[in-house]
Design brief:
Elements (H helix, E strand, L loop, with lengths): L27 E2 L5 H11 L8 E5 L5 E6 H6 L6 H4 L13 H11 L4 E4 L5 E5 L1 H19 L17 H27 L2 H6 L7 H25 L5 H31 L2 H31 L10 H22 L1
Parallel strand pairs: 1-2
Antiparallel strand pairs: 2-3, 4-5
Keywords: CBS domain, Magnesium, Membrane, Transmembrane, Transmembrane helix, Transport
GO molecular function, one term: magnesium ion transmembrane transporter activity
Main location: membrane
């Protein structure tokens, strides 16, 4: 029977890797340890253990062979060996895995701590539950800031009251400038279709609808890409692209059909209804580019995909929506 894992985390692991979060002070025993011995071990070292949600079973070479929850230990007779009650269906991560992926995996598998193993399956320690929650909070906060177009250094606080005005301005202004440039480009695009607008002023009223619907669908797709990329080591892009695209196409078909019916009902003009429905189908379909393709490229290039879903993605989607809308209108009028 062992008391506490003596493995210490390597300080050379990357900053956002699991290796930086390893907690070695956990109950570790051999397969032949009895339930009584485990209880004595916990009672003796309760103040030293970082977490006691699970008991970790290793062999003579410190390779993890099984895990058993403290609940299971307390349910069995003292004479039982831990090898009889442990589970060998292990959920674990590696020290070089990104901390966000490990945290999402813990949520998906519904575990309160995640063992960390090296490439040879040696037990290094665990990531405790409170650390996992802290990681999730940090990563979600960062993603929300990026969605809003805010940048920040790792050493700088998010607290507005603690930041200097110039520092806060530096975080926010670059993306706002990108938004301004994108807005000017969109304005010129609309200006290029001035004659179309003059003859059909009703089309101008539907610009916000086209822009909003495509952005809403794109943001949905992007959120799934970011989440699924965090949960899956190797996302099968072809299958994933086909499935997501089919969902987007179905959404586009349903929404454009609804808009066609409403337009005919309100305006009694089949040509306007046709322009609006076909345009909405096209703009929503274009969200596959900004919501799926661009974030996936960011993932492959090892950039944070949340950056693709902020103001840059929004500006690109707005431009595509306006361009598609007025191009279709010019062709069908």
């Amino acid at each position: 029977m062992e008391s506490i894992s003596a493995i210490q985390p390597d300080q050379k692991y990357p900053p956002d890797s699991v290796g930086q979060l390893i907690e070695p002070n956990v109950p570790v025993v051999s397969p032949h340890t009895s339930v009584l011995e485990i209880k004595e071990l916990i009672n003796k070292n309760i103040d030293e253990f970082r977490t006691i949600n699970y008991i970790y079973i290793t062999d003579h070479s410190n390779k993890l062979t099984g895990v058993v929850s403290i609940r299971e230990v307390l349910k069995h007779d003292n004479h039982r060996h831990v090898s009889e009650i442990m589970t060998t269906d292990l959920i674990y991560t590696h020290p070089y895995t990104h901390q966000e992926r490990a945290a999402y995996m813990a949520l998906k598998k519904k575990v309160k701590a995640v063992p960390v193993l090296d490439k040879d399956h040696h037990f290094l320690g665990v990531i405790p539950y409170d650390t996992l929650l802290s990681v999730l909070y940090q990563e979600i906060s960062e993603d929300l800031l990026k969605f809003a177009g805010l940048t920040r250094g790792h050493s700088e606080t998010d607290d507005v009251m603690s930041l200097k005005v110039l520092t806060s301005l530096k975080h926010r202004l670059p993306w706002i400038i990108i938004g301004l440039a994108g807005g000017l480009l969109i304005a010129r695009t609309i200006g290029a279709f001035e004659s179309t607008l003059q003859n059909n002023l009703i089309l101008a009223a539907f610009i916000p609808l086209m822009v909003y619907m495509s952005n809403a669908v794109g943001q949905q797709v992007s959120a799934f890409v970011i989440r699924d990329s965090a949960l899956t080591d190797k996302l099968p892009f072809r299958k994933y692209f086909i499935k997501q695209s089919s969902i987007v196409l179905l959404i586009a078909l349903i929404m454009s059909t609804i808009l066609f019916g409403i337009s005919v009902l309100f305006y009694g003009d089949f040509n306007i209804a046709k322009i609006l429905s076909v345009s909405l189908f096209g703009t929503i379909t274009s969200s596959i580019l900004t919501g799926l393709t661009i974030p996936y490229v960011f993932v492959k290039l090892r950039f944070d995909p949340a950056n693709a879903s902020g103001p840059v993605g929004t500006v690109i989607q707005d431009f595509l929506s306006v361009l598609i809308y007025f191009t279709i209108a010019s062709l069908l009028i």
